[in-house]
Amino acid sequence: MKVRREGERASVIDIDGELTGATEAALMEAYQEASGPQTRAIVLNFTPLEYMNSTGIGLLVTLLVRAQRQNQRMLAYGLSEHYRQILSLTRLDEAIGIVGSEAEALATVAA
Amino acid sequence: MTTSDTPRRTDTDAWAQPTDRLAVSYAPAGALAGTVRGKRLSGPLQGFGQMWQKTFRVRLEGADPALTPQQVVATWKQEFPAFWPKGNTFYAPLAGIRPGEVALLSVSAAGPVKLHTGVMVVFADEEAFTLMTPEGHMLSAWITFSAFRDADGTVVAQAQALERASDPIFEMGLVFGGHRVNNRFWQGTLRNLAARFGVETEPVTEIACVDRRRQWRYVPNLRHNSGFRSMVHSVTAPARWLRRRP
């Protein structure tokens, strides 16, 4: 997982490869790195995601709870139609803001 | 992570299609489809109570050395109802545990009253399968059943729930003894699964509170509470029995 700080208010996490129980430590470390005292939003980039199982979805919930505790919003972009459907099925799309691009996510944070 | 040497895994067929409202195609005698039909799925984000992650695990030490995690998951799917503790019924869908299938269930609640509700299979592949609860279920939850090899090669079977009470009444029930009953249920299930592979063992349990907050905006979930309908169903059972008599 790669983390990019986009100013003080937002960070982007590139979710690379697989999102499963095996990647829990990597995702939580990425969140730790992405989250600073001024961070208002965590943006998840799903473009490089290749495989996600139900444990991976559980990790997103855990991440969301941690972000909410810090009063941070969670946004996502780069979702294929398949992953959009999974977020809809599991009703994660009600808590994670889905946008079309990184620029749109960062504009949402800046607004 | 995938490398150029390993074939890419795909999850395309493992996930159910999104559904707005649940349909029940199979309702055997004893089941109550009305608490599930037309309901929406409700995961841990849509519930009321504190969020818990509960993990129950058995090491299948002493089982057939040729046993694989995939075989354990296949057996678990195929014989799922048989592993449930006595007094609880899982009405397996006719097509089996497959993505998109809806199953009804009856679980022991207070005294002779059974709680009638259901689950949907949202994910199923060779290594794991996940059930998600509908509105009205005691829990807003995902429960994932999986098997894997431990560091020493032993096959481990695991049930992991990410759950919170769906409404304030069920939250009270969980606080005053419901959690203990719920934990015993999954411990019993894993004990029965281990016994299926000739292993007598006690499950290891790990419980962590993921979110201490209660989500007050989900108090209106009370209107779906399957407990009310289940109670009416239990109380009116003698009347139905009398009506059916010739």
Features:
heterodimer, A: about 110 residues, alpha/beta, two-stranded parallel sheet, 4 helices, about 25% strand, globular, B: about 250 residues, alpha+beta, Alpha-D-Glucose-1,6-Bisphosphate, Chain A, domain 4, eight-stranded antiparallel beta sheet, about 25% helix
Please write out the topology.
The complex is a heterodimer of chains A (111) and B (246).
Chain A: E1 2-6, E2 10-14, E3 17-19, H1 24-34, E4 41-45, E5 49-52, H2 54-69, E6 73-77, H3 81-89, E7 97-98, H4 102-110
Parallel strand pairs in A: 2-4, 3-5, 4-6, 6-7
Antiparallel strand pairs in A: 1-2
Chain B: E1 51-59, H1 69-78, E2 89-91, E3 102-108, E4 114-124, E5 128-132, E6 139-149, E7 155-165, H2 168-196, E8 204-211, H3 226-235, H4 237-244
Antiparallel strand pairs in B: 1-7, 1-8, 2-3, 3-4, 4-5, 5-6, 6-7
Explain what the structure shows.
The complex is a heterodimer of chains A (111) and B (246). Chain A is of the alpha/beta class and 111 residues long. Chain A is built from four helices and seven strands. Chain A has one domain (2-110): Transcription Regulator spoIIAA. In chain A, the strands form two sheets. A five-stranded mixed sheet of chain A has the order 1-2-4-6-7, sandwiched between helices. A two-stranded parallel sheet of chain A has the order 3-5. Chain A is globular, with a radius of gyration of 13 Å. Chain B is an alpha+beta fold. Chain B has a single domain (33-213), classed as Alpha-D-Glucose-1,6-Bisphosphate, Chain A, domain 4. Helices cover 23% and strands 26% of the residues of chain B. An eight-stranded antiparallel sheet of chain B has the order 2-3-4-5-6-7-1-8. In chain B, a hairpin with a 3-residue loop joins β4 and β5 (128-132). Chain B is globular and about 60 Å long. In chain B, 41% of the residues are buried. The A-B interface holds A 16-18, 23, 50-55, 57-58, 61-62, 64-65, 82, 85-86, 88-92, 94-95 and B 1-2, 8-12, 14-19, 40-46, 51, 53, 122-123, 125, 127-128, 130, 132, 142, 144, 146, 160, 162, 210-211.
